[in-house]
Design goal:
The chain has 792 residues and is an alpha+beta fold. It is built from ten helices and 46 strands.
Length: 792
């Protein structure tokens, strides 16, 4: 019985244990599953909006964090920490000014302190996050790869081991922020201040983009401040970079060391080191008044920075060489950042023993003062092998109408300045050379702005031997005015061995043109023609004078020969005092004392030969050429009066056995140098001579009985496709006349001519039947035709 009772009790206890275990397991499952669901919900979907608002309001109400915070989502981590996504921190309680934006923050909570009413947030951390700092409505300062640990200890916020990448900087900072409430409300910045701050930031970003590094530049910051006054407190900072490039130019070292105390940034060490020399500076920046002062000293050879400056400045730097010295500069700069970037500069530049463009200089000194509106250069001096320059300059932009005044005296050879003023001026300087030193210049400058386009420079210039565009001159002198990129020489006087020239010339550098006003010269035309440009040289090439003619020129010459249409409009009157040689149709003819006018308009040249002697006779005519075509097309109207036929034939065909007086009129068109394109009409008359033995008649006259000396000829002709044709050739002697028609191909030198014999005057009627008997035809060359009788 006892045994039975014991077994029953044992079975009862076993059943009770199993029941308790099942109840316990069921309870745990009942609690754990919803709890796990809640935890997973909070981990991946975040706190409900009501809980998020309550939690953030409690943090703000208990002043756990001193700044208002907005969060997109709050997630719960497995360790009990809160993960806040897209966090925005505001500067003010009204949440009008954003201070920071962070994509994710991990916040550790001391949950038991919640019930005690003490600090709820224990610490926060940021891991590989992106942080944005608003600079302006369109600009933010973006920090990447941000890692930071922040501890909240009572009223202190400690930033421990914060690191980030910003532009090309590797930032490292640590410090303490004392939580003493919201900052004192500041007056909202004006639109101008916001725009100025944004513009300054954009300039900083562009400047940082110009710096290339093998490794990020290291920046360290250690600070202590308060939430009420973030600009106050203290800080120490360092920036150190090695083996850098600036716009591809090498920079050995860049270092900045300084500190912040009570709103004053002190720059204790600023250094830029190049291959030779360095720039050092120190100064202060008042963050409240937004002004700064910088003192600098430089002994660096900055010519290695030439690749950093494309254009004229880089070109000029590449031409400098400080082989035996370094350029020295000292100065002070005051900055006012209240309404933008304004600088007040006072500096002294002193270079000794250097070369530029291979020319040695003893010294260049420039004292300068500039406050953003006024510029003063009290005494610039250049002394060297190429000459000397003394300059004084003052600009006052504070006036209602800004005022600029300057004075310069110089005998510097300007050709050594190639590479300073741009390609247009380089083209001009490259065409000049001065054998006896640079021109002597005394000038004053006036204007209303610092841009050279607003300047007017007036003075006087004299020079000895010089060459301009291959044209050599002994002396030149003129007053001058330089304004709007134009050099005006109103009373230029130049001398060459064979003669001189006077007049006014305006050289337009911007539009590459030359104006001539009442220019009178008596110089070698071909040698001086390059002054007016390559096209003018080709225009004048055909005309060769034994002695220089008297030339009057007025108009404009467009030097931009690459353009399709030119603005050239030039009239040149030529009064020759000696013979001139002019090649026409490949024959070099001689003209005595030619008097005419050349008109250049666009790419058309018109030569109006008003009067000149031509082989003891007279020549007048007009030649018009369209130079836009290649070869140029022409129209020629020519009149010859009483020209010595023998001299004409000797020059044209080297034939000396004919004589007489030649009169002719002709109208021809074609292309220069292409005889086959010649077309036209004309009339020729020869009197009082002997043309019996003219080449194409030489073998014919012996075949005609009683034919005496042929003393006259007359006929009309046409020219086309290389062939001259006549229908009314009449060559007469005392008794007989030769009447003919035919053609001559001057391209192939082939003659085809029919001639018949007529009796003149009273012999015409009785001898008429003979004209039908003596008919001849010629084939062959002009000099050796084959005459055959058509009836025998």
């Amino acid at each position: 019985m006892a045994n039975l009772t014991g077994e029953r009790m044992k079975s009862y206890r076993h059943y009770l244990k199993r029941l308790v275990a099942r109840l316990t397991l069921g309870t745990l499952v009942t609690i754990a599953v919803p709890l796990l669901v809640v935890l997973l919900w909070l981990r991946f979907l975040g706190l409900p909006e009501v809980a998020k608002v309550y939690l953030l309001s409690e943090i703000q109400r208990r002043h756990i964090f001193p700044f208002p915070v907005a969060v997109d989502r709050l997630l719960l981590s497995p360790t009990g920490a809160i993960l806040a996504e897209r966090v925005t921190v505001f500067r003010d309680a009204e949440r009008q000014s954003i201070m920071l934006q962070v994509d994710r923050v991990r916040v550790s909570f001391a949950w038991l302190n919640w019930w005690r009413g003490t600090g709820l947030v224990d610490s926060a951390s940021i891991s590989n996050a992106d942080v944005s700092y608003p600079v302006g409505p369109q600009e933010t300062a973006d920090f990447h790869e941000v890692n930071a640990d922040v501890a909240f200890e009572g009223k202190n916020i400690k930033i421990e081991n914060a690191q980030a990448r910003f532009l090309n900087l590797a930032l490292s900072l640590r410090g303490t922020i004392h939580n003493d409430g919201f900052p004192v409300a500041a007056k909202p910045p004006t639109e101008e201040q916001i725009a100025a701050r944004q513009a300054t930031w954009q300039a900083i970003v562009r400047a940082m983009d110009d710096i290339g590094t093998e490794q990020p530049i290291e920046v360290e910051l250690e600070f202590e401040s308060s939430t009420r006054d973030l600009n106050g407190g203290r800080a120490n900072f360092t920036l150190d970079g090695r083996r850098l490039t600036w716009r591809s130019a090498p920079v050995d070292e860049l270092s900045i060391h300084g500190s912040l105390n009570d709103g004053i940034v002190e720059l204790s060490d600023f250094k830029i080191g190049l291959e030779r020399g360095e720039l050092t500076a120190y100064g202060e920046w008042n963050l409240v008044d937004r002004n700064a002062e910088l003192q600098f000293t430089s002994s660096m050879d900055f010519t290695t920075l030439a690749p950093a400056f494309p254009g004229p400045l880089g070109e000029a730097l590449s031409r400098l060489d400080f082989a035996n010295s370094v350029p020295v500069a000292t100065g002070r700069v005051l900055f006012d950042l209240e309404q933008g970037f304004h600088a007040d500069i006072q500096a002294d530049l002193d270079w000794r023993d250097f070369t530029f463009n291979g020319t040695s200089f003893d010294r260049l000194s420039i004292p300068i003062a500039y406050d953003g509106k006024r510029l003063l250069i009290p005494g610039l001096k250049i002394a060297g092998q190429a000459g000397n320059v003394d300059l004084e300059f003052f600009f006052d932009g504070t006036q209602v109408t800004p005022v600029l005044n300057g004075k310069i005296t110089s005998n510097l050879d300007p050709t050594i300045l190639k590479g300073v003023f741009g390609q247009g001026m380089d083209n001009f300087l490259g065409s000049c050379s001065f054998a006896e030193g640079g021109p002597k210049i005394e000038a004053t400058a006036t204007g209303s702005a610092l841009k050279t386009d607003a300047w007017t420079v007036k003075g006087k210039m004299t020079t000895g031997k010089f060459v301009y565009k291959t044209a050599a001159f002994d002396t030149a002198a003129s007053d001058f005015t330089f304004a709007d990129s134009k050099l005006n020489l109103p009373d230029l006087e130049v001398h060459r061995p064979e003669g001189s020239g006077t007049g006014a010339i305006i050289y337009d550098f911007k539009n590459r043109s030359v104006e001539l006003h009442n220019l009178v010269t008596q110089v070698n035309v071909q040698e001086v023609a390059p002054v007016m440009g390559p096209k003018f040289t080709s225009y004048t090439a055909p005309y060769h004078f034994t002695h220089p003619p008297l030339v009057h020129a007025n108009g404009v010459v467009d030097l931009a020969s690459e353009k399709k249409d030119l603005t050239t409009d030039l009239t040149v009157q030529v009064d020759g005092k000696s013979p001139m040689e002019w090649t026409l149709f490949h024959v070099p003819y001689s003209f005595d004392s030619p008097n005419g006018t050349l008109i250049f308009k666009n790419r058309r040249l018109t030569v109006n030969m008003k009067k000149c002697g031509f082989y003891d006779g007279d020549l007048a005519g007009v030649l018009d050429m369209d130079l836009r075509e290649n070869p140029a097309s022409y129209t020629l109207d020519l009149n010859l009066t009483k020209v010595d036929f023998k001299k004409f034939m000797t020059r044209t065909w080297h034939y000396e056995k004919s004589s007489g007086s030649l009169t002719a009129q002709t109208h021809l068109t074609g292309n220069i140098g292409r005889m086959e394109t010649m077309n036209g009409t004309g009339e020729i008359k020869i009197e009082d001579g002997d043309i019996t033995a003219i080449p194409f008649l030489g073998a014919l006259t012996p075949l005609i009985p009683g034919f005496s000396v042929a003393d006259a000829a007359h006929g009309h002709f046409t020219a086309a496709k290389g062939v001259i044709h006549t229908d009314d050739m009449n060559i007469s002697s005392e008794i007989f006349a030769l009447i003919g028609n035919g053609s001559y191909n001057f391209m192939t030198d082939r003659l085809s001519l029919d001639m018949r014999v007529n009796a003149n005057a009273i012999f015409g009627i009785p001898l008429y039947p003979l004209s039908k008997i003596f008919e001849f035809h010629a084939d062959g060359t002009m000099k050796d035709p084959d005459w055959q009788s058509k009836n025998f």
